[in-house]
Design goal:
This protein is an alpha+beta fold. It has one domain. Strands 1, 2, 3, 4, 5, 6, 7, 8, 9, 10, 11, 12 and 13 form a 13-stranded mixed β-sheet that branches. The longest helix has 41 residues.
Length: 346
C-alpha cells in the first residue's frame, strides 16, 4: 500500500512538473508567434493589411470551414510576393511542429493532384495549392490579445495568443483527398503517399486489438456517419459520444490509444502539445473513450471519436476521392471541449 502511495505521488509530481514546464514554455511559443506575425504584417501593403489584419472580435474570426469555399477571409498566398510568402510560412512554422507543418504543406500541395484528377469536369471546384488564406485578428503585440487563422481546402488552423502566451489552438482541422495516392502524380506525389497515415493506422490497430466483448462498447454502429459533426460552428460538439474507456483496455491497448492521441497533439509545437497532453495525463487515460463506427474493412466508410474531459478528436473517412475510390477522403479535427477560439462553451 505504501509503495502504491509513493508511486501515485511520483506520477502526480511528474505530471505537475511537466504541466508547469509546458505552461511556462507556452510563453516562448507565444513570443515566437507574436514576433513572426508582426514581421508578416510589416511586409503588407496598406491594401493587403486591410484585408489581412482584422479586429480581434470580428465575427469572421470564428467563421471556419474546410470545404473549398468560393470566398474566404484573409489574404491568399497567391496574392503575396515571395518575401510575403516566406514571412507567412515563417509564421505558420512557429504555430506548428515540424510534423504538423509538413502535413499542412502536403495538404496544400494535394490541390495539384485534385486539379489533375478533376481537369475534365465542367464547373468544378477551384483546386489551387496557393489558395490558402492567412488572417491576423487584432494587433500582434507582446501585451495584446490576437488571433491567427490559416485556412483553405482541408486545412483550418486557429490560434489565440494572449500576452505572448498561446491561449487557444483549436479547432485544429486536417483533411486529405486522396487519403492515399493510388497512382503516381509526378515526382512529388508517388503512389502510396498518405498525409494522415498514422491517424488511420493506429485507430485500425486499436480496433483490431479489441476482444469481442470490448467491441460491444467500442463499436457504436455498423455504418459510419457521413462526416464529422458541427463543421463550421464556433463551439465544439456537446455531450458524450460513448465508446470503450481506457480503464477497460489492457496496457497495450492503452498505449495504442495514447499514441493515437499524441499523433494529433504533436502537430503543434512541443510545448503546446505538451500542455494538451499534460491536461489529459492529469485526468488519466482511464476515462478517455474510443468509439468506432463502420466496418473494420479498409476502403469502406469508417469513423472514430476519442473523447476526454478536455478534448474531442473526430476522424471520418467515408467519402470517395476525386477518382471515385470509396472511403479515401479524410476529415480529422481536435476540439477543446472547454471552448474553441478561446471562447468558453456557454
Amino acid at each position: 500500500m505504501h509503495r502504491r502511495v509513493l508511486l501515485l505521488a511520483s506520477v502526480l509530481l511528474i505530471v505537475a512538473v511537466s504541466y508547469g514546464f509546458a505552461t511556462l514554455k507556452l510563453v516562448q511559443t507565444g513570443v515566437d508567434m507574436t514576433t513572426a506575425a508582426a514581421a508578416f504584417v510589416k511586409t503588407l501593403s496598406d491594401e493587403q493589411r486591410a484585408k489581412t489584419v482584422l479586429a480581434y472580435d470580428a465575427p469572421v474570426r470564428t467563421d471556419w470551414h474546410f470545404i473549398p469555399k468560393p470566398e474566404r477571409k484573409g489574404l491568399q498566398v497567391k496574392e503575396m510576393t515571395e518575401p510575403q510568402r516566406a514571412a507567412a510560412h515563417d509564421l505558420l512554422r512557429t504555430a506548428l511542429s515540424a510534423t504538423g507543418y509538413g502535413k499542412a504543406t502536403k495538404i496544400m500541395a494535394l490541390e495539384s493532384v485534385l486539379r489533375e484528377l478533376e481537369k475534365g469536369r465542367v464547373n468544378g471546384q477551384i483546386r489551387d495549392p496557393e489558395r490558402y488564406f492567412f488572417t491576423v485578428f487584432g494587433q500582434p503585440t507582446a501585451d495584446g490579445r490576437w488571433g491567427l487563422s490559416v485556412e483553405g481546402h482541408h486545412l483550418s488552423l486557429n490560434f489565440v495568443v494572449d500576452g505572448n502566451k498561446v491561449a487557444s489552438s483549436t479547432p485544429t482541422f486536417y483533411g486529405a483527398n486522396p487519403g492515399v495516392l493510388l497512382a503516381d502524380y509526378g515526382p512529388e506525389f508517388k503512389k502510396g503517399l498518405r498525409v494522415l497515415a498514422q491517424e488511420e493506422e493506429l485507430a485500425y490497430a486499436l480496433l483490431g486489438s479489441l476482444s469481442p466483448e470490448q467491441r460491444k462498447s467500442a463499436v457504436l454502429a455498423d455504418k459510419a456517419p457521413g462526416d464529422i459533426r458541427d463543421a463550421g460552428k464556433a463551439y465544439p460538439p456537446q455531450g458524450t459520444v460513448g465508446g470503450l474507456a481506457g480503464r477497460d483496455m489492457n496496457d497495450r491497448q492503452r498505449a495504442i490509444l495514447r499514441a493515437l492521441v499524441e499523433e494529433y497533439a504533436n502537430n503543434l509545437p512541443p510545448d503546446v502539445a505538451g500542455a494538451r497532453l499534460a491536461a489529459i495525463a492529469a485526468e488519466g487515460y482511464d476515462s478517455v473513450t474510443f468509439a468506432w463506427s463502420g466496418p473494420e474493412t479498409p476502403s469502406v466508410g469508417h469513423d472514430y471519436k476519442i473523447q476526454g474531459r478536455t478534448f474531442l478528436i473526430e476522424f471520418n473517412n467515408t467519402q470517395p476521392d476525386s477518382a471515385g475510390n470509396l472511403a479515401n477522403h479524410i476529415h480529422s479535427i481536435w476540439h477543446d471541449t472547454a471552448g474553441n477560439f478561446a471562447i468558453p462553451v456557454k
